[in-house]
């Protein structure tokens, strides 16, 4: 197969290595040539635990791709959704005293802020820098105001950082695969960019993503990734609570919940039918109890992630667009109304349930 200018992407997430090749055809037209996933091995606790195992996995799959496409890659773009990366926001300024803002002023601010990050975050490496906001004489400007005149210019940046050792390990592994790292991208940034692309007039929003055993929240401002936070719990907490309180087997609970219409008000005296129990295990359990347990746990999860999270309090406004993605389909099918009700009670009505989990393109 002959290709023009293919780009190799390797995504590292919590479950797998994902190998993708896109052929850049020009005029913003791309063609997917290859995609394959293999289980994540040699990685533990958000670190590379077995250098050789990771190297062999990558080398083997890169060789198969090159053989299939008849093309030898020299560099790779990494998409990370595994390592403990962080975001730091800083603002710098330049007094203009009525003069024109020039590129050298911008470079001065960026280099000053980079130096501050390098000094205060000595154990981390800057991977990417996002432009967040521009202010000229205290007025926010939509685009970089080079060429405009003013007295005081302020520039806010967001720095994407990963640990020095993680960065060095990635460089060395890929170097042994005869590849240079062209760029490292956050998967959260790609997800946010996809939302921006699909919602053309939307530049600032917050996204909450809940998986079975982990959760994530990130904030986009002016089409730039400004904040992210990860949590080691997810929707499994809801089912586990119901199991603890009722003592019913999980498969039976799933059947019971599947037959309850949570969109209707449940009678206080409605009991779970005997058909869901064996003859000797029947217990009088109110259907509403199941809903109350789920509702209480959903409220607790969303409070920790969002409404009582001091890290995001400065972002929260009534008109803020919120995207909520529940990756546990069973949980979403059963309790979508509970999630919506939580946000409506907080007067945060600008909520969209985001269900399209396979459309974040590279």
| Largest sheet composition | 5 strands, mixed
The structural class is alpha/beta
Uncertain spans, ≥5 residues at pLDDT below 50? none
Alpha carbon gyration radius: 25 Å
Oligomer: single chain
Question: What is the H/E order?
Answer: EEEEEHEEHEEEHEHEEEHHHEHE
Strand order, sheet with most strands: 3-2-1-6-11
Total beta strand runs: 16
Strand coverage percent: 25-35%
On the 0-100 scale, what is the average pLDDT? 88
Dominant shape: globular
Helix fraction bin: 25-40%
Folded structure, characterized:
With 362 residues, this protein is α/β, with parallel strands linked by helices. It is 33% helix and 31% strand. The strands form four sheets. Strands 3-2-1-6-11 form a five-stranded mixed β-sheet. The protein has a five-stranded mixed β-sheet with strand order 14-13-12-15-16. Strand 8 and strand 9 form a beta hairpin. Helix 1 (51-69) crosses helix 3 and helix 7 crosses helix 8 (329-345). The longest helix is centred in the C-terminal third of the chain and has 21 residues, at 287-307. It is globular. The two termini are 22 Å apart. The model has no long low-confidence stretch (mean pLDDT 88).
